[in-house]
Design goal:
The complex is a heterodimer of chains A (about 110) and B (about 900). Chain A contains four helices and three strands. In chain A, strands 1-3-2 form a three-stranded antiparallel sheet. In chain A, α1 crosses α4. Chain A starts with 10 loop residues before the first helix and ends with a helix. Chain B has five domains: about 70 residues, no CATH class; about 200 residues, no CATH class; about 200 residues, no CATH class; about 180 residues, no CATH class; about 200 residues, no CATH class. Chain B is built from 27 helices and 23 strands. In chain B, a hairpin with a 2-residue loop joins β8 and β9. Chains A and B meet through α2, α3 and β3 of A and α1, α2 and α4 of B.
């Protein structure tokens, strides 16, 4: 298995928002989910995950609530706000544009 | 609603810090635990699972810090923590704290003082409603724009302009308060009724002038200033309707202006302008009537911008110039009229602008030197703090965080200095207000307001940034491993810091040299002015004016003045006395200059004719001042016997004038001036003045110039109010009362005014230069003291740093002299670099004080050389102590030390 790819700056925000669009989740689960969905290609470091979560919260794109986790421990659950949903749309569109542009060049 | 959420989050971040910290802990702990669980599920034993999770997790503290940073308000929290830390740190280093505070107090104080002056005069709006719309009207006819204009233009401007709501005319005069024990001159403005509307002032009591109270038919009324009403009338609430005897005329008090209404500055009374007589002063005007000279103000309409105003003034200049009769314009009068409008504040501040800019520039330079000095101290300290910082960085502080902390420390260091600076500035401003240097006399008291406070705070922030940035960057560049390994053995920062210190010292010295050169140039110019030959002796010379009321030139000025002169000449304490129109060295508001034409030379338009200064003097003038006769003769009263009194119409070939040597050099180079005839002003006046004699030059108006003078005689029928020059046999101060008694023996209602000895006038004429010199001189002194301290600090530091090296050198056989030479070489390089930098700076900057220099070039080599020698001497003196310390190094101790 090759080394997990480092995330592009700013892409992490998009991934977090996308992950949270499904259901509210705590930080660890978000990291796991991203790793799973990317088939272990993307591995989120705690050092970038939590600052990103706090930053998104400050932007009021996600909000946090303390809840019970599956093994009955208190965990901080993040969920998408209305503004966050819009932000996700915006970021998805710009990501589509960017990635298709890059693929076009790489394949050319 | 997003902003509301955001706001709540920010609020929480600041005020519920403890709760947030707990939550952050819990959150990360949860993550960690899950990681451990997963590792166990994957088959690790608990111990190994824990270690693996920890390895993956990395530095918890750093992540936490980044999370806090994400909350953004951590800036505030960090600032608070850093400040407390900085205060603790500074307490351990009282020398640094004290030095920085004192230095900053003096420098920020000086800057704040200069800014307070600039703020009061240049920046803060004048205390009149919408004062930015009040314009001062100036007129140019001939070479230069003048502050004054002609009354017909006032009427024309009022009627024809499209940009002003009102135009006002006024004259600054004085009236005599009569009917009292000791008559007294009161500063008065005689104004058009529109004056108060232009100033948008409301009276405190009663009213001001109504529209019809203008011209000769205006009723005898007067409006009082608040100060006059308060100080002289005891704030009498029933004052309206009472009368004042002014110039022997009883005037009814109709109003009192509010406190702070002080225009023109110092005015005690406002009276209607009686001489603004529409029939004689309005267009069409006739060339044979004298035109009244007035000052003018106007209030611009709110919608009018500067471009529109300029266009309109151009149009008005052209239109009004065309209103003057053909025969006047043919002579050049008003052929080239330019009427200008300048915002009143700019006009008032005009004379001070250059002086203030130079002072402001100098204090900023001094402050920069102070910054360099403190930066130097901080660099020295940064060396000894390397380990502390390295530990912090090893524990996870980012470089940005370290820089921020260092900058916070420098801010904490600057705050007491800034506060003390405000106090110092407050003291300095009170001293300025009490002492009132001549340069500020024409302006209201200096005061400090929120702008000054804001300025000082901004200055303090900027200062701390400037002196903190170099040390902060240099400490952030520390190599952690090296610093930790050296474990406190070396106390020195790296090469970079040493170079930074050298550069700072060179910069400091260079800037000080610029200031020294500036002060030196002013000092040399001042000495030149002090030693200027006045052309007469100012010793024991008393001067005063008598502006008689109830007299006029066509009736009895002549007998009045001759009787006083006669009485004065018979006093035993008087050596000699003379009458004069313009007292030499008095700052006359309207200096008497005029265009002349030499009879027999081609007639050119008036504006192209040579302009010369004229003065009316009695024959004793020359003897009293000690002016010598070069050729011809001095006129005497006999020359004028039998001449009719009053303005002399018709042809009188016996009219005689005396001229100065400068006049002859300029107008009659290589010719015999005696017997030549001159015509003043428009040719149709037809009086031909014959030059009867040539006298030696004197300085008449200002110390700077040597004017071309024409003297006319006051003999018989003086046309002007006159002053007296009295050479006394006793100290002039003792002569004032007796002289005043003689004047009042002739007419008891006449006060004497503007009483000054010639020495006082001479001092007053130099007052602006002296003020500049003292200020720039003291700034330069502060600068050089600071720079010397900087040199001392740096050299001490270098010696301390090289102790081991010097020890080895001495152990290898270097003698004391060699070590001394080495240290001096170091100093010499610094000095030479500084002199180079200083010369460059001075070359670029001294041109801005060119206008203030008299008889000295702004690149005067003498000043440059002397000041650099002085600088070198001071630097050598400052580095002598450290050099001696280097010489005394004991090789054994030095080598053992490290």
């Amino acid at each position: 298995m090759s080394k997990p790819t480092d995330l592009l700056q700013g892409t992490l925000d998009l991934l977090i928002l996308k992950t949270l669009a499904l259901e509210p989740m705590h930080g660890w689960a978000i990291a796991q989910r991203i790793q799973q969905l990317s088939k272990d290609v993307l591995q989120v470091q705690q050092g970038s995950l939590y600052p990103a979560l706090h930053r998104l919260e400050q932007q009021a794109w996600i909000e946090a609530e303390w809840g019970e986790s599956d093994n009955n421990r208190r965990a901080k659950y993040y969920s998408l706000t209305k503004a966050g949903r819009k932000q996700l749309e915006r970021e998805s569109i710009s990501w589509e544009r960017l990635s298709s542009a890059i693929s076009a060049i790489v394949r050319a | 609603m997003r902003w509301l959420k955001k706001l709540r989050l920010r609020f929480r971040s600041v005020f519920q810090r403890a709760a947030l910290e707990r939550e952050l802990d819990d959150e990360l702990r949860f993550h960690f635990d899950r990681q451990v669980e997963r590792n166990i599920v994957a088959g690790m034993n608990p111990e190994k699972a824990r270690l693996a999770a920890a390895r993956e997790f990395g530095q918890i503290a750093l992540h936490k810090d980044e999370c806090r940073d994400a909350r953004r308000t951590s800036m505030i929290e960090n600032f608070w923590e850093d400040s407390r830390y900085a205060v603790r740190n500074l307490r351990r280093d009282p020398f640094l704290a004290l030095t920085a505070t004192l230095t900053l107090a003096v420098c920020i104080g000086a800057n704040t003082t200069v800014f307070s002056v600039a703020n009061s005069i240049l920046i803060r709006p004048l205390p009149y409603p919408n004062s930015d719309r009040i314009d001062w009207i100036s007129e140019r006819n001939g070479p230069a724009q003048q502050d004054i204009g002609a009354a017909p233009d006032y009427f024309a401007l009022r009627e024809r302009n499209r940009i002003f709501t009102d135009v006002a005319a006024f004259q600054i005069t004085d009236v005599t308060l009569t009917g009292v024990e000791r008559p007294e001159k009161l500063d008065t403005a005689s104004v058009s009724p529109s004056f108060f509307r232009v100033m948008a002032a409301q009276p405190l009591l009663g009213r001001y002038l109504s529209d019809d109270e203008e011209g000769p038919k205006a009723p005898p009324i007067v409006v009082l200033s608040y100060e006059f009403w308060h100080n002289r009338m005891g704030s009498d609430p029933q004052i309206l309707g009472k009368t004042l005897a002014l110039d022997r005329l009883s005037r009814t008090i109709v109003g009192v202006m509010p406190q702070g209404f002080d225009f023109p500055h110092g005015t005690q009374l406002w009276t209607p302008a009686m001489s603004l007589d529409p029939p004689s002063q309005r267009f069409p005007i006739s060339p044979d009537k004298p035109i009244l000279i007035v000052s003018m103000l106007a209030r611009r309409k709110p919608s009018v911008g500067p471009v529109e105003a300029a266009t309109e003034m151009k149009r008005l200049s052209f239109a009004i110039g065309a209103l003057y009769p053909q025969e006047m314009r043919k002579l050049g009068f008003r052929s080239d009229l330019v009427i200008g409008a300048t915002p009143l504040q700019d006009y008032l501040a005009g004379p001070l602008r250059t002086a203030l800019s130079i002072l402001a520039g100098s204090v900023v330079l001094v402050l920069l030197i102070a910054c360099a000095n403190i930066a130097n101290l901080l660099l020295a300290r940064a060396g000894s703090r390397q380990r502390e910082l390295a530990v912090r960085m090893a524990l996870g502080s980012g470089r940005g965080r370290i820089i921020r902390q260092m900058l916070t420390e420098s801010l904490v260091l600057a705050i007491p200095g800034g506060a003390a600076g405000i106090v110092l500035a407050w003291l300095a401003v009170s001293v300025l207000n009490t002492a009132k240097p001549a340069i500020l006399v024409r302006y209201p008291a200096i005061s400090m307001d929120w702008r000054v406070l804001a300025f000082t705070i901004a200055l303090m922030l900027a200062t701390s940034l400037v002196f903190g940035i170099v040390p902060a960057l240099s400490s952030a560049g520390i190599q952690i491993q090296d610093a930790l390994k050296s474990a406190g053995l070396t106390q020195s920062a790296g090469r970079g810091a040493t170079r930074a210190r050298r550069i700072l010292v060179v910069a400091e010295l260079g800037v000080s040299l610029v200031l020294l050169i500036g002060a030196g140039l002013l000092a040399r110019s001042f000495l030149r002015m002090m030693h200027v030959q006045l052309g007469f002796s100012s010793d024991h010379l008393l001067t005063f004016r008598v502006d008689p009321i109830g007299y006029s030139f066509d009736r009895n000025y002549g007998p009045f003045y001759s009787e006083i002169l006669d009485r004065l000449q018979h006093l035993p304490m008087v050596r000699s006395a003379a009458l004069v129109d313009d007292i030499p060295l008095s700052h006359n508001q309207y200096p008497a200059t005029g265009a002349i034409r030499v009879v027999g030379r081609p007639i050119v338009p008036v504006p192209e004719r040579p302009r010369v200064d004229t003065n009316e003097v009695s024959p004793e003038f020359f003897e009293t001042l000690g002016i010598s006769l070069r050729s011809g003769r001095i006129f005497s009263a006999h020359d004028f016997v039998g001449m009719p009194a009053g303005p002399r119409p018709g042809l009188l070939s016996r009219e005689m004038v005396l001229v100065s040597e400068s006049f002859v050099r300029r107008i009659f180079p290589g010719q015999d001036p005696l017997g030549q005839q001159l015509v003043f002003g428009p040719d149709d006046l037809n009086i031909r003045w014959t030059i009867a004699g040539v006298v030696s030059d004197i300085r008449n108006t200002a110390i700077g110039d040597l004017p071309s003078m024409i003297y006319r005689c006051t003999c018989g029928a003086p046309q002007f109010r006159l002053g007296f020059l009295v050479r006394t046999a006793v100290p002039p101060g003792n002569a004032i009362r007796p002289l005043e008694r003689e004047v009042r023996a002739v007419d008891r209602d006449q006060p004497i005014s503007d009483v000054k000895t010639m020495d006082e006038r001479r001092d007053a004429a130099l007052a602006p230069e002296r003020f500049q010199l003292i200020l720039l001189g003291s700034f330069a002194s502060i600068a050089i003291i600071l720079a010397a301290a900087g040199v001392y600090g740096t050299m001490s530091y270098l010696v301390a740093r090289r102790t081991r090296e010097i020890g080895i050198r001495m152990a290898m056989g270097a003698r004391a002299a060699d070590v001394l030479r080495m240290m001096l070489a170091e100093t010499t390089i610094l000095v030479l670099l500084a002199i180079g930098a200083g010369f460059g700076g001075a070359w670029a900057l001294t041109r801005y004080i060119r206008s203030m220099l008299y008889g000295v070039s702004e690149l005067d080599p003498m000043t440059f050389v002397v000041t650099s020698v002085l600088l070198a001497a001071i630097v050598l003196a400052a580095s002598l102590g450290p050099a001696r310390r280097a010489v005394r190094i004991d090789p054994m101790t030095a080598l053992r030390e490290e």
